[in-house]
Amino acid sequence: MSDQQGFSPRERRASFTLASIFGMRMLGLFMIMPVFALYGSGLEGYSPLWVGIAIGAYGLTQAVLQIPAGWLSDRIGRKPVIYAGLALFAAGSVVAALSDSVYGVVIGRVLQGSGAIAGAILALAADITREENRTKAMAIIGVCIGLSFAAAMVAGPLLASWFGLSGVFWSTALLALVGIVMVRLMLPDSVSKGQIRDVTAAPELFGRLLKDPQLLRLDFGIMLLHMTLTAVFVAFPLSLKDAGLVAEHHWWLYLPALGLSFVLIIPFLILGARRNMNKLLFQASILVMMMALVLMALGQGQLWLLALAMVLYFTAFNFMEASLPAFLSMLAPAGGKGTAMGIYSTSQFFGAFLGGVLGGLLFQQLGGPGVFLLVALTMVLWFWLSAGMANVSRVRSHILPIGGNIESESARSQLLQRLMALPGVHEALIIPDESAAYLKVDGNIFELDQAKRLINL
């Protein structure tokens, strides 16, 4: 396969290295979730509320710093921001590992979250890859994030049973150091291209996108999704323990439940794309998640029922986790994908923090069943809001370099008119500072080669 058709060796190495670094960092953030409620009981200040805060604390600093860190990488370069973020993540892991109180663990988690490198990693991937390969690079990173969550559900319980809670945090520190070495030795040097609107946020677009009801539904949805995740894992490990599954064997349930959920969502993802049923299947997933949460509440002391609930929960979670970014990509305006994704990611991490706090408060007052039932009620609100979702399908984004064809305002206006006249083009935007045209198109009709020929006239 030629470089024009697929990854060059440089692009391939960079994409898989960045995906690995991103995945290792997410693995480190997630590993505490299935174990802290069980293994943190010996820490000073332990309580359900502080369990929830410790699990979700990373989300607060991650939410606050996500977009600024991306902007900073535009100015000082991608690698310095990635180095600093991984160093902060390692420092937070060490603080948590050395702590004998839950408060120290919370401080460590806050530090871990402050290493917000997602924007810099995505921007570096965009710098290093050509536009025709950028989507594949982002997909590789996305797959690695999903795999890191699955690995965390297994690795967390195993490491905690072998080395204790501090061993989990020492492992995350080691992962961060490995990431720093990978950046140094395996990532090619690149000249930052500055702002690339498909991966970094543009301040002037915030007001517009925060008023878009379709994008706000997605932002609210990802916030709720990750709120349920952290809230569930405040209580669910204790439910498993009460049902007779010892802590070191919890991965026996998580691993097959996750594996089965990945198998179950594949036909539905394919069906949604081919039959234009994305909205219907998404709404069905909300109902499945609500059912899973109710089963968790009813299944106290019954391991088989808790196992069934977790299969349903992971199936719904993974389907929605895969679908929401795809919807956002299709709905974001031309040249606004990076900004939309920045708002979306901020909502996601804030949801993780909110879920930890609410889960801890609810568990303290109502116990595990109360957590599951009240979180299930939020699914009713989400289902109601999802009724207004657009049923989007086959909408694609493209960035095309346009070189010297935009030297004057009249030349830009004429080129924009010609691009908008192409079959399948919904939106077109020319950014002179980037020498690029951003297109939003119908993938069933639009012909990329035709647009390239027009631009090169």
TrEMBL record:
The UniProt transmembrane annotation reads: 16-37, 49-69, 81-99, 105-125, 137-162, 168-187, 218-239, 251-273, 280-298, 304-331, 343-363, 369-387
Q: Does Kinase appear among the keywords?
A: no
CDD domains, sorted = MFS_YajR_like
Keywords in alphabetical order, please.
Cell membrane, Membrane, Transmembrane, Transmembrane helix, Transport
Q: How does it sit in the membrane?
A: Multi-pass membrane protein
Name where it's found: Cell membrane
Pfam families, alphabetized: MFS_1 (PF07690), YajR_YAM (PF21987)
Q: Which InterPro entries match?
A: MFS, MFS_dom, MFS_trans_sf, MFS_Transporters, Sugar_transporter_CS, YajR_YAM
GO cellular component, alphabetical, reads: plasma membrane
* GO MF, one annotated term: transmembrane transporter activity
Q: Which residues form the Major facilitator superfamily (MFS) profile domain?
A: 1-394
Which superkingdom is the protein from? Bacteria
This chain belongs to the protein called: MFS transporter
Q: Which organism is it from?
A: Oceanimonas pelagia
Organism lineage: Bacteria, Pseudomonadati, Pseudomonadota, Gammaproteobacteria, Aeromonadales
